[in-house]
Fold Ribosomal RNA large subunit methyltransferase J.
Amino acid sequence: MLSYRHSFHAGNHADVVKHTVQSLIIEAFKEKEKPFLYLDTHAGAGRYFLGSEHAEKTGEYLEGIARIWQRDDMPAELEAYMSAVNAYNKGGYLKYYPGSPLIARHLLREQDQLHMTELHPTDYPLLRHEFLKDDRSKVLRADGYQQLKSQLPPQSRRGFILIDPPYEIKTDYQAVVQGIQEGYKRFATGVYALWYPVVLRQQIKRMVKELEETGIRRILQIELAVQPDSDRRGMSASGMIVINPPWKLEQQMNTVLPWLHRVLVPEGIGHTKVSWITPE
Ligand code: SAM
């Protein structure tokens, strides 16, 4: 089943948090000259036109990126992320939202590598087309979880792995934990960032418990809720679970997340959280 299309959701509050974390991790990798691999297991289409029927239907980006992109009181932690958004929106008009592959493409250096997988028959060709002229990159129509076995460890022994499934099938909540375990077995020093939605809190509690049971240490949880938890339909919060986070990430998110919450949720409901699932 591949009915999920990210074009309905691109640039929403969840993308803002996800891509803030993604850009901060990439910037941390760049503090060393040595090349690294960026592996995006569930990459999406890459570029999203915000005037599309899909984006207009939900209008989710209006309560996400549109609320922050031209603020003049933005914390420095958003600079790298915003430089990517601005690169695809010249002229002061928010036309496109760059997904995780395009944010990585903008931030990575000549010596780094991007590997991306996407399964959707419509989104895969769009993504491939974006990267035709980028010889740092490899785009495959393949299963993202499989990459955690076949692509790791990277030759450079430095790697950032973004795992961002749609969770349209319930087994994704277990598949991500198994995938991380497979990846970690091969490459324990990699930085793994797993995105999750909070639709039913119980599902996330179970997933976190299973992650704890893997015995993996240094797992940081970052979350922004736009509503209190609820058992009604829809996503009330989203977050990133980061294994082996760069040492500054906790403090950076403690600075930027309350700002994002204030701007994204002017009603003041919901919450933010930065805490360790398992420390050292
Ligand atoms: N990471 C993207 C971003 O931040 O811009 C968004 C990705 S979207 C949430 C999830 C994507 O995963 C969808 O485009 C979907 O088609 C794709 N997908 C679903 N199952 C997959 C699988 N097993 N392997 C690779 N891609 C998959």
Residues 6-278 form a domain with the Rossmann fold fold (CATH 3.40.50.150). The radius of gyration is 17 Å. The first helix runs from residue 13 to 29.
